[in-house]
Amino acid sequence: MNKTGKVWIAGAGPGDARLLTVRARQLLDEADVIVYDALISTEILSLIPLGKELVHVGKRSGHHLMPQEEINTILLKEAQKGKRVLRLKGGDPFVFGRGGEELELLASRGVPFEVIPGITSAAAVPAYAGIPVTHRDYTSSFHVITGHPRKGGVSRIDYQALVKAGGTLIFLMGITSMESILKGLMEAGIDKDTPAAVLEKGTLAKQRQVVSTVSCLFGEAAKAQIGTPAVIVVGDVCLLAEQFHWAGDRPLGGREFLLTRPRQSMSGLAAKLRELGAQVIELPAVRTVTIDPNPVLGQALRELAGWSGERWLVFTSPTGVCTFFSQMMKMGMDIRDLCAGLYPAKFAAIGTGTEKALHGFGVFADLVPDVYCARSLGEELAHTVAPGGYVMAVRAREGSDELFPPLWAAGIHAADIPLYETLYETYGTLKEKISSMLWSGEIDGVTFTSVSTVKGFVRAVPLPHYRGIRAICIGEQTAAEARKYGMQIQTSREASIDSMAELILEMFGDKPCKNSR
Ligand code: SAH
Questions:
Q1: Residue whose CA is at the smallest distance from ligand 1 atom 5
Q2: Residue 313: which of 366, 386, 379, 388 has the closest Cα?
Q3: How far apart are CA 358 and CA 309, in angstroms?
Q4: Is the CB of 99 inside a 6 Å radius of any atom of ligand 1?
């Protein structure tokens, strides 16, 4: 392996995960270590695959959590260990991002690096508020200025020059010194009725804005309790917000959802919700771990092979199918071991996904219930299998309780054999962020697509109680599990991603106006 690693200094954009550049998105997957700031949104953090080393060097204007030199040293040290280091910064790394300072040490030590520009908040935050930073009818330039005073509180802004230039003025890091910035502009002769706006948490679901004038903005922003991060925009283009607002108008604009589902199968719903304007946090990362060795399975298979009556294998997930066949192979058995005698083994699958996985192993399912759920599967089996038959469910540990009662009632011998466990893992930092967002009510709803996602969620995100959570559930069983924790339940009509998206749209599509003007 290459001895020296490499550092990618990349912009993550202003917050909306879809504003990551293609390259930055790739690097989330490729990096070994990710060094990130406080401004990196939870939605973006939730895209980071498990197994990365995350270093939070969150520094916000005013209270630096970590001195710049220390960050520079971390980048150097990690690269020298041979790692691929992604330095993820809010917006663009070279727009008030200290990207240049971070490169100095790397360059002087000969550490290879690349810079990936990002979408700067200076342009994107106004854009999401419907404010074009330039417009031929209003202005021919825009100026990006830091509102953060130098040490000792002295501002270095040349207000005379700014007012004379007459372009749109965009102040970053200007919230704490907003009053003095606006005063400085007025003292330099700007018309006090010049339109001005403050835009908070731009591009994120909870973005807010106040549009006013240079003389009134400070008072109105205080009234609206505008906080950081926020951008101040001064210039006639601010008037266009009235006409061009769009972000909050999207069907799910202003809404934020937490999706609990294994990443691969979840992206369909995530993409749909994002398309409708919602912000989506994908949690948690689910990992399945095969129970191996599995003596219980070995014993059960021998029993099944020797069974003289009807015998059935029941699968409730594609993972179960794959795990089952690989375990059989490991035990030196093949499917013919279960097909000798009067009753060759029959196969049941809970739904089409599982049925398809069986096809992959050359098996056509003998039974797939009309309704995709454990209870229907149990009931249909109970009708199909003759009393004295043997039904063996090979599935996840902690599978649904509803599969077996109909079988027992019909006098069928049934065994529940766990093949794998579902583990919910995610980064500690993400758990903390999500817990606090749920607790504060910032997240509008949480989706659950199986009983195990509910179980995994409460394990991954421990809260004093879950009563404030609006749970959007895929079926009755999932709903029953969520109800156990006191969540507020809504259940989709059908067990499909489309039906979930429809329900979410019904619940949240009719939203109050979120922009205070
Ligand atoms: N490199 C960043 C700027 C870093 S300075 C960029 O190119 O965007 C941090 C300042 O950026 C904040 O104080 C705020 O003024 C602005 N900012 C960043 N993200 C923002 C957001 N989502 N909404 C509003 N302002 C934001």
A1: 96
A2: 366
A3: 23
A4: no
Bridge-partner residues for 283, per DSSP? Answer: 260
Q: Which of 39, 63, 98 most suits a substitution to test ligand 1, by most atoms within 8 Å of the C-beta?
A: 39
Whole-angstrom CA distances from 455 to 192, 375, 395, 424 are: 57, 19, 16, 9
CB distance 327 to ligand 1 below 6 Å: no
Atom of ligand 1 nearest to the CA of 173: 13
Of the listed ranges 132-136, 273-277, 338-342, 471-475, the least confidently predicted one is: 338-342
Peptide bond into 293 cis (omega under 30): yes
Residues 432 and 409: beta-carbon distance below 8 Å: no
508 close to 255: Cβ distance less than 8 angstroms: yes
Pocket of ligand 1 contains residue 96 by CB under 6 Å: yes
Segment 351-377, tens digit of pLDDT: 888 899 999 999 999 999 988 888 899
| Ligand 1 in reach of 458 Cβ (< 6 A) | no
Q: Which of 20, 172, 178 to mutate to test the pocket of ligand 1 (most atoms within 8 A of CB)?
A: 172
CA distance 74 to 68: 10
Q: Does ligand 1 have an atom closer than 6 angstroms to the CB of 328?
A: no
* For residue 262, pLDDT beyond 60: no
Q: Among all residues, which ones are annotated catalytic? A: 37, 59
**pLDDT tens digits, residue range 305-353?**
888 889 999 999 888 999 999 999 999 988 888 888 788 999 999 988 8
What does pTM read for this prediction?
Answer: 0.81
- Is residue 437 packed enough to be buried (19+ CB in 10 Å), middle (13-18) or exposed (0-12)? middle
Residues in the chain: 517
Q: Does ligand 1 have an atom closer than 6 angstroms to the CB of 76?
A: no
**Which residue is closest in CA terms to ligand 1's atom 9?**
173
DSSP string, 152-164: GG-----HHHHHH
Position 210: which residue type? V
Give pLDDT tens digits for 19-29: 999 999 999 99
| Helices and strands per DSSP (H, E), number in the chain | 19, 22
Residue 419 backbone zone (phi > 0: left; psi -120 to 50: alpha; other: beta): alpha
Helix (H) or strand (E) holding 333: none
